[in-house]
Design goal:
The structure is a single chain. With about 110 residues, this protein is mostly helical. It is about 80% helix and about 0% strand. It has helices spanning about 1-20, 30-50, 55-75, 85-105. The longest helix has 24 residues, at about 30-50. It is found in: Cell membrane. It comes from Lentilactobacillus curieae.
Length: about 110
C-alpha cells in the first residue's frame, strides 16, 4: 500500500505543477486553489508512504514521478518543445526511478 501512496503522491505533484501553470502566477483563483489542494494531497500521500518506506527511497521516487510527469504534461498538454536529446535524459530519469524501486528490497 505504501508504494501506491507514493505513486499517488507523485501524481498529485504533477497535478499541482500543471495547476500552477494554469494559475498564471496565482492570478486565477480556481487554479490557485487547485494548486494548493494538489500540494497538500501530494504531501499527505508522501507522508503516508514514508511511514512504511525509507525517505531515501520515497523522496527521490516522488520527485522523479513529479519531474517526468511534469515534463510529459508540459510536452503533450502545454505543447512545450523539447529537443530530441532531452527525451534520452527523460528515459534516464525513468530508468533511475525504476532502478531505485527494483533494487530497494521493499
Amino acid at each position: 500500500m505504501a508504494w501506491i501512496d507514493l505513486f499517488i503522491a507523485g501524481l498529485f505533484e504533477v497535478f499541482w505543477a500543471a495547476m500552477m501553470k494554469l494559475s498564471h502566477g496565482f492570478s486565477k483563483l480556481g487554479f490557485s486553489v487547485a494548486t494548493v489542494v494538489g500540494m497538500i494531497l501530494s504531501f499527505y500521500f508522501l507522508a503516508k508512504a514514508t511511514k512504511m518506506l525509507p525517505i531515501s527511497l520515497s523522496y527521490p521516487i516522488w520527485t522523479g514521478i513529479g519531474a517526468v510527469g511534469s515534463i510529459l504534461v508540459g510536452a503533450f498538454v502545454f505543447k512545450d518543445t523539447l529537443p530530441p536529446a532531452t527525451w534520452i535524459f527523460i528515459g534516464f530519469l525513468l530508468v533511475g526511478i525504476i532502478g531505485i524501486k527494483v533494487t530497494s528490497g521493499h
